Each structure stands twice: as C-alpha cells, then as structure tokens.
Amino acid sequence: MTKKDSSIVLFHEKQVRRHWNEKKELWYFSIIDVIAILTDASIPRRYWSDLKSKLKNEGSEVYEKIVQLKMTASDGKQRETDSFSTEDLLRVIQSIPSPKAEPFKLWLAKVGYERIEETENPELAFDRAMETYLKKGYSKEWINQRIKSIEIRKELTDEWQGRGMKEGLEYAILTDEITKA
C-alpha cells in the first residue's frame, strides 16, 4: 500500500495531522490534534503539557515514546509537534479524563477482552476475520481463497524456517513473489 509521508484525517469533522514512517511502517498522529477533539480544553497545548507532566511523574512508559515530527501547523508552517504511533496514542487516550474519550476507552476494553477470548479459543479470531471481510464487502469465495493463500504461504514460510532461512530481505522478496503469484 502506498501512503503519503504526511496527511490529514478527519475525526468528527475535525482534522488530525498524521505522518507515515516508511521504515517502521507506522502512522504517527499529532497528540495536540487528538486532545483538541477529545477534551473541552481551550488551549490543547497546555492540556497536553499538563498531561505529559502527569504521565512523566507517574513513571508512564508512554512518555518515553513521544516522537517529535514536523507537521504543517494551522498557519501553514512546518512545526515540530509531539506525536505517537497508533498503539501509543491509544494508551495516551486512556489517560485523558474526559467524557469524549470514554467511547474510545470502552472500545479498547472491548477489543482487549475479545483478544483475551481469542487466546483461549483461536477459532474466534477466524470468525472475527470472516465477519470483518464480509463487512468490507468481500464475497465468501474471495474470503475462502484469501484464507487458503494465507495457509499456503504459512506452510511455505515454515518450511523456509525449518531449512534455516532467517527473516530478512530475501524472505520478504520470496514472500512478495508468492503473494503476486
């Protein structure tokens, strides 16, 4: 998938700046933009400064994961802003005491519960994948073919590992060629 280095996404008709890190294959989001949406703070930067201090004082590991990225500010200039990967952003949202953040917290709890259930019963993960593909509009035939191709690729990569091949560039190239075929 080709992704722009930086772009804007809309959430509740408000902008959230983001940046795609090609090397890590992760999106990074401006925490200031998210705070502006999820709180009633008149000055989101001040709110973030206070929350950041609180997280640091509590010894939160998420504080260490702040990434400073240049993003286009409202005045059109490139300015460094605190950013987080999706995973770390979701962790910060859990620390925001705001009614607007509550739906995210409930969703995170639901997803976490589902993943715990899937560790006890892996078939649930398969059912969830089927449901997701169907909601996206894929046909049952396409889904079955996709699952078969994943199974075949997994068998092949297991064979490569069994023969001593280590994951890396060659591994990625071979996997990519299989996917194209």
From TrEMBL:
One family name in Pfam for this protein: Bro-N
All copies of domain Bro-N, residue ranges: 15-114
InterPro entries assigned to the protein according to its UniProt record, in alphabetical order: BRO_N_domain
Protein name: Bro-N domain-containing protein
Organism: Candidatus Roizmanbacteria bacterium CG_4_9_14_0_2_um_filter_39_13
Lineage, uppermost ranks: Bacteria, Candidatus Roizmaniibacteriota
